TrEMBL record:
Protein name: Nodulation protein NfeD
Domain of life of the organism encoding this protein: Bacteria
Domain NfeD1b N-terminal: 31-220
Membrane topology: Multi-pass membrane protein
Source organism of the structure: Sporosarcina quadrami
Listed PANTHER family: INNER MEMBRANE PROTEIN YBBJ (PTHR33507:SF3)
Residue stretches spanning the membrane: 232-252, 264-284, 291-324, 330-353
Lineage: Bacteria, Bacillati, Bacillota, Bacilli, Bacillales
Localisation: Membrane
Signal peptide feature range: 1-27
Main location: membrane
Amino acid sequence: MHKMIGKLLLFILVFSVIAVPFSNAEAAEDKVYHVKLDEAVERGLHAYLKRAFKEAEEANAKAIILEIDTLGGFTDAAGQIGKLMDETEPEIIAYINYRAISAGAFIALHADEIYMSPNGKIGAAQAIVGSGNAADEKADSFWKAEMISAANSSKRNPEFALAMADDTVDKSEYRAGIGKLLTLTAQEAADEKVGYSEGTVASFDELLQLLGFEKAEIVKTDLTFTESLARYITHPVVVPILLSIAGLGLILELYSPGFGVPGTMAISSLLLFFFGHLIAGLAGYETMIVFLIGITLVILEFFLAGGIAGALGAIAIVASIIMAGANPAYMAYSVLIAIAVAASGMVIIMKFFGRKLHLLNKMVLMDATDTESGYVSNVNRIDILGKRGLTITPLRPSGTIDLNGERVDVVSQGSYIDKGKHVIIVKVEGSRIVVRESYEKGENE
């Protein structure tokens, strides 16, 4: 009996020793993903968040804390991010560490919970076009509906979301009367009447303690090099610059012998453009196929006559560039900028460097048939300068003289000279021979 009790106690002891590591491992399985959103909202950001959220799902994370500090960005990218947040399984908690403005406010409203730093702000979400002006009525109406839907998705009062996007909504008690967009401070957002924040915390660590995640494993996600490069390349300011460099490089390469720096710059710019848009998920392989078809047709133009292959190739390249962007209108605008830069570059090349570039001389007549180069349209008869002749016809002021038996067309210096008068040649300018009346007989009458 004592032996059985001893064995039982030994079994319990061994089981306890073995079970402790497993219980600790189970406790350590709680993971919280910390994802930062601290730059402009664009499609490159969507690709990064998609990867981070997927990693969190695969790791069975308890929650994703999305730390937000942004002045906004593109509404189409914000819409894709909002859809991504709605489809993500782990709970998403937005921590507004200073600013969630415009598209940032829209993204925050798609979170399950919102917390703010003491200096945090959320709002001012009017739709703005690339020129900095308010969007047209159609785009504005759509964006207001998006803001309302975002508030409804997290069960918040949609009136405040609408006031953030519509300056005709009166929220005077929050400094947003008619003509002003609503922007809420941390204290205002946490007000029970508003309900746009679950609380105000001074730091990320304080937020973890408040949520009960102080012992959880915090997994910080960072942008990879390719994601950082893609975000930079797909930035709305960088896109037209890349396309302009590509266009200008191609023009310079056509007008210079061999293949050198301009061609390398052009190809590198195009490769960077498509690489960034592929990584960001904007361009598909069909876009690259259209681009390669365009390049092939342009190359064929060097071997085929007619110009049809080159024209179709150029159209295919432009089409592939427009297809690569999320907003076709913006991409078309970027292409027009690139064409304008390339055209300006062509004018400058023709004006200042055309004579030194071999292909340009084949396309445009650059040589001038001037006297300095040895070309004359008529024989310049400077040998008759100072000779005397006799007018055959009156000079009024042009006419004909007899010069040693040769009929020569001349003009007077401006005065009328009658027929049968003696004249002397005073100037020869190509075919223009100028005479004046002479009152003395010469040996060459």
